[in-house]
């Protein structure tokens, strides 16, 4: 049976990286994770320029999301604030990219601009090969419904609806039949361990549970891109670990993820980490596991006695 | 190495190989266990110091094995070790020395130093997270050891970010 995290629109011939019941798609001991060279999907986005000198998307992977020269200036106060100051970014199909950086470095603004929640002051954005920076708010809403899932720090579930309705709504809005929407909701809630809470109001759930529901909602329409803004920022450490584990599984199943986070553990799950500083990219690093011979724990914490 | 062996022997007498296995089972794959030679050398020294004593035990159709047990002096030493406060892990300051001093001599750029150190930490974090993903059946001690390493590494990354804010 197909895992609900698997992607129906995975390009033909691309290797399957996750199967149900396999909780650890990556090999232990820092073995390199499988990073397949996904062939260009028919009608898919154009391949970006060859590997970015600072990191960039995986060689051979087509860019799902591409932005050039992004600038975001807030002019609400007396002095204009440049939150994003000239960012070029590219995210390949199937990549998990983390954006890190100090508070106020422009991380969340960048994510919101890339997801169309805020309009860029300058710059170009391409999603699945389509130029999107000039879209109207309504056109963005339609695009997001089909292709972009969002997860926020404070969950943003609809408080007047049940858990089940929260998860079904995006599919219904996107034109799925009630039956399809119900089936997808049931699969997702089961996968995220939330079936028993389907009829509850979100306010009766813990933070970790609400975030799992939010993740189910974001994945309901099998979005090409999952954008996550500090998804573990408001969770205790055990719930944060659960949510990260689920994101790791979604990624292993082929989900493209762009996540803003303070949580350094995410650097251990992502393919790439972009460090933002003062609204600009200070570093863009592909994460390479420490060599197999290294003893990561002892390098940090030597048991003495 | 001395005190952990004394602690294991305080529980019950054992031979060298049993001690090695007990360490590995307790601390899991994250722990780089001492080789058997180190264990025998340490036991011999402990015996010379009067902290353990040993006797050969005959085995059917196999060479004798040497079984060690704790002496009263060994028990005292162990109690003193347990009672004394333990020094916390030291901050590894070698990178910080490089970061502060190398640019003064025009040997390196601070941003490059910070970035390459950060990449190194990311790689370790990745290995730790891979390890953690495979620890469902590990002992609590083994899991806590990896978690401790993750927390230290998080602090290292935070410090690096502070250095970047202040120095670059």
Short description:
By secondary structure, chain A is of the alpha/beta class. Chain A contains seven helices and ten strands. Chain A has helices at 107-114, 137-147, 163-173, 178-191, 207-219, 237-252, 296-300, and strands at residues 63-74, 81-92, 96-100, 122-127, 130-131, 148-151, 225-229, 256-260, 272-277, 280-286.
Question: If you had to describe this structure to a student in words, what would you say it looks like?
Answer:
The complex is a heterodimer of chains A (305) and B (168). Chain A is an alpha/beta fold and 305 residues long. Chain A has 7 helices and 10 strands. Chain B starts with a helix and ends with a helix. Chain B is mostly helical and 168 residues long. The radius of gyration of chain B is 22 Å and the shape is elongated. Chains A and B meet through strand 9, strand 10 and helix 7 of A and helix 1, helix 6 and helix 7 of B.
Shape of chain B: elongated
Please write the string of helix (H) and strand (E) elements of chain B. HEHHEEHHHH
Helical fraction of chain B equals 55-70%
Uncertain segments of chain A: 8-58
Quick one: biggest sheet of chain A? Answer: 6 strands, mixed
- Average pLDDT rating of chain B: 88
Distance between the termini of chain A: 51 Å
Low-confidence stretches of chain B: none
Secondary structure: number of strands of chain A: 10
Number of strands of chain B: 3
Q: Under CATH, the topology of the largest domain in chain B is which?
A: Arc Repressor Mutant, subunit A
What percent of residues of chain A are in strands?
A: 15-25%
Q: Biggest sheet of chain A, strands in spatial order? A: 6-7-8-3-9-10
Q: How many helices of chain B?
A: 7
Topology diagram in text:
The complex is a heterodimer of chains A (305) and B (168).
Chain A: E1 63-74, E2 81-92, E3 96-100, H1 107-114, E4 122-127, E5 130-131, H2 137-147, E6 148-151, H3 163-173, H4 178-191, H5 207-219, E7 225-229, H6 237-252, E8 256-260, E9 272-277, E10 280-286, H7 296-300
Parallel strand pairs in A: 3-8, 3-9, 6-7, 7-8
Antiparallel strand pairs in A: 1-2, 1-4, 4-5, 9-10
Helix pairs in contact in A: 3-4, 3-5, 5-6
Chain B: H1 2-11, E1 14-15, H2 16-27, H3 36-48, E2 52-59, E3 62-70, H4 72-83, H5 94-104, H6 110-133, H7 140-167
Antiparallel strand pairs in B: 1-3, 2-3
């Amino acid at each position: 049976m197909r895992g609900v995290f698997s992607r129906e629109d995975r390009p033909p011939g691309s290797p399957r990286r996750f199967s149900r019941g396999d909780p650890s798609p990556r090999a232990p001991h820092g073995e390199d994770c499988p990073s397949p060279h996904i062939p260009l999907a028919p009608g898919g986005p154009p391949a970006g320029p060859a590997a970015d000198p600072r990191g960039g998307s995986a060689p051979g992977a087509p860019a799902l999301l591409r932005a050039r020269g992004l600038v975001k200036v807030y002019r609400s106060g007396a002095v204009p604030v440049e939150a994003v100051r000239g960012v070029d970014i590219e995210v390949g199909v199937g990549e998990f990219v983390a954006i890190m950086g100090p508070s106020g470095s422009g991380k969340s603004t960048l994510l919101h601009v890339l997801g169309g929640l805020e309009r860029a002051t300058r710059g170009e954005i391409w999603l699945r090969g389509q130029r999107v920076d000039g879209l109207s708010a309504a056109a963005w809403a339609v695009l997001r419904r089909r292709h972009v899932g969002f997860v926020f720090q404070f969950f943003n579930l609809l408080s007047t609806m049940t858990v089940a309705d929260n998860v079904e709504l995006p599919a219904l809005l996107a034109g799925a039949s009630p039956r399809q929407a119900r089936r997808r909701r049931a699969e997702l809630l089961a996968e995220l361990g939330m079936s028993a809470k389907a009829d509850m109001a979100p306010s009766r759930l813990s933070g970790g549970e609400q975030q799992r529901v939010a993740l189910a909602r974001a994945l309901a329409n099998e979005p090409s891109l999952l954008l996550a803004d500090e998804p573990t920022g408001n969770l205790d450490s055990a719930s944060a670990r659960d949510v990260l584990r689920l994101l790791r599984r979604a990624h292993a199943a082929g989900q493209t993820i762009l996540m803003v986070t303070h949580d350094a553990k995410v650097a251990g799950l992502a393919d790439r980490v972009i460090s933002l500083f003062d609204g600009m990219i200070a570093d863009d690093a592909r994460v390479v596991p420490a060599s197999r011979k290294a003893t990561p724990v002892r390098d940090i914490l030597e048991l003495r006695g | 190495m001395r005190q952990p062996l004394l602690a294991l022997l305080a529980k019950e007498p054992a031979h060298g190989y049993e001690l090695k296995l007990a360490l590995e089972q307790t601390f899991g794959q994250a722990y780089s266990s001492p080789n058997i030679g180190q264990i025998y050398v340490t036991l011999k020294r402990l015996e010379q110091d009067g902290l353990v004593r040993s006797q050969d035990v005959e085995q059917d159709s196999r060479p004798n094995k040497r079984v060690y047990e704790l002496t009263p002096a060994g028990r005292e030493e162990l109690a003193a070790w347990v009672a004394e406060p333990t020094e916390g892990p030291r901050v590894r300051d070698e990178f910080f020395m490089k970061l502060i001093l190398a640019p003064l001599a025009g040997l390196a750029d601070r941003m490059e130093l910070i970035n390459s150190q950060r990449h190194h930490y990311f790689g370790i974090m990745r290995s730790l997270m891979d390890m953690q993903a495979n620890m469902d059946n590990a002992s609590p001690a083994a899991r806590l050891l990896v978690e401790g390493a993750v927390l230290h590494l998080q602090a290292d990354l935070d410090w690096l970010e502070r250095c970047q804010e202040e120095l670059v």
